[in-house]
Amino acid sequence: MNDWTKIIKVTTVKDKESGAINTPIHLSSTFQQDDFDHFGEFDYARSGNPTRKVGENAVAQLENGQYGYLFSTGMAAISSVLETFSQGDHLIVSKFVYGGTFRILTEVLNRFGISHTFVDLRDLKQVEAAIQTNTKAIYIETPSNPVMNVTDIPAMVKIAKAHHLITIADNTFMSPVLQKPLDLGVDIVVHSATKFLSGHSDIIAGAAITNNPELADKIYFIQNAVGATLGVTDTWLLLRGIKTLGIRMAQSSTAALKIAKWLQQQPEVTRVCYPGLESDPGYRIQMRQARNGGAVLSFDVGSEDNARILAENVQIPEFSVSLGGVESILSYPPKMSHAELSPAEQADCGITPGLLRFSVGIEDPDDLITDLKQAFEKMTPAK
Ligand SMILES: *Cc1c(COP(=O)(O)O)cnc(C)c1O
Predict the structure, then answer these.
(1) Beta carbon of 238 within 6 Å of any ligand 1 atom
(2) pTM of the prediction?
(3) Which end of the chain is more exposed for a tag (fewer CB within 10 A), N or C?
């Protein structure tokens, strides 16, 4: 079944009792047991709830996975997956990993004896060299935030399998309609469902998906034990948001490519980071493993002053953190998502003072370009 059809089928799960075509919001923490000896599928809502079950099944199916779990935030999903590891375990993690994941690894999990090595996963030799006797997993995030470095997923899977490691991939930036890591051999996919999956900048949510029953049991155990589950109202909103995922990703990624090409022509722009551009170093790998370059790009306008002029003068995009909504979002990584990094660390990750990130929404791309153009006209050229 084509993804667009599947999206609608998996999110439109009718209520058996009433025939309502949309899953009801089951606001119940406890479920009556009819039999003294044999309990039903649901007993207490932290352990399971009919609304959440429909949402979990939907995200699992979209990733071609068998087991899906929904969490209260993307970070809850990621940290719950990482909590399946134990004291003494070591993880190899992308050097360009999301800031919250970096924080959990460096300030929480390290205190519990789970260690890590950050590696630029584009360098396969470095990945091999980082493997220790206690290494258990490789943690991938591709394309990376905000400079859109591409990691070769099948190459990571190959290295991992050769050393009996599992692979985990944060698929937030692509969404399952543009990239399906499980199909490429990855063991666990995680999402900030706050972004493209929900798509409307209205909820915070996370997901973890796998095909491996043993890993599924471990994730479920942590989900139930720690309890960072997604509430039913937010699950319902997530299901509603996912219904348009296919058309949103198509519109936004087509627009992102058009905008990226336009940005390349602008004299003020010193660099455009978008793996959908043929000139991008990640282009070939991206096209092998994903449908297109996605809906997020970043570009450098040469200086902080120019970045400020652009941010202050655009009329259509929201100037804010986050991404993946129907509305275009312009953000300034040096002061927003990556503000915690020192200037040297920022430079090491390609985060220059003139760098802006653009999450392209579903507006008309020509309107977005016209808007960028009028804002660019207020700058002083850098080259
Ligand atoms: C936003 C984000 C997260 C964290 O998700 P929250 O829903 O904010 O907790 C993790 N990974 C990536 C790539 C993200 O963009």
Answers:
(1) no
(2) 0.97
(3) C
